[in-house]
Design a protein that fits this description.
alpha+beta; SH3 type barrels; 5 strands; globular
């Protein structure tokens, strides 16, 4: 199962390379934001993250609701967090 986990953009680490640091449930990783290049993504914005890539920009209310829902999925949520924890973007 593939889940998009809400994460908050905390730093635009390399805008020219479309890289940003995102906090997902207390885990901070640099991810690709290339798919959202035309959305005007900025620090403080929320995105759905799947294994190192921001897939969609969402608002804080949707982020909270989505996080609540996926946490109730148990093992699928834990698997996605583990995948995020071990992901890197080169």
């Amino acid at each position: 199962m593939c889940l998009g986990i809400p994460g908050k953009v905390v730093e635009l680490t390399d805008p020219d390379a479309y890289l940003a640091k995102v906090d997902v449930n207390g885990i901070r990783r640099t991810i690709s934001i290339r798919l959202l290049a035309d959305t005007g993504l900025d620090i403080g914005d929320w995105v759905l993250v799947h294994v190192g890539f921001a897939m969609a920009k969402i608002d804080e209310r949707e982020a909270t609701a989505t996080l609540d829902a996926v946490q109730k999925m148990g093992q699928a949520y834990r698997d996605e967090i583990d995948a995020y924890r071990s992901s890197t973007v080169n």
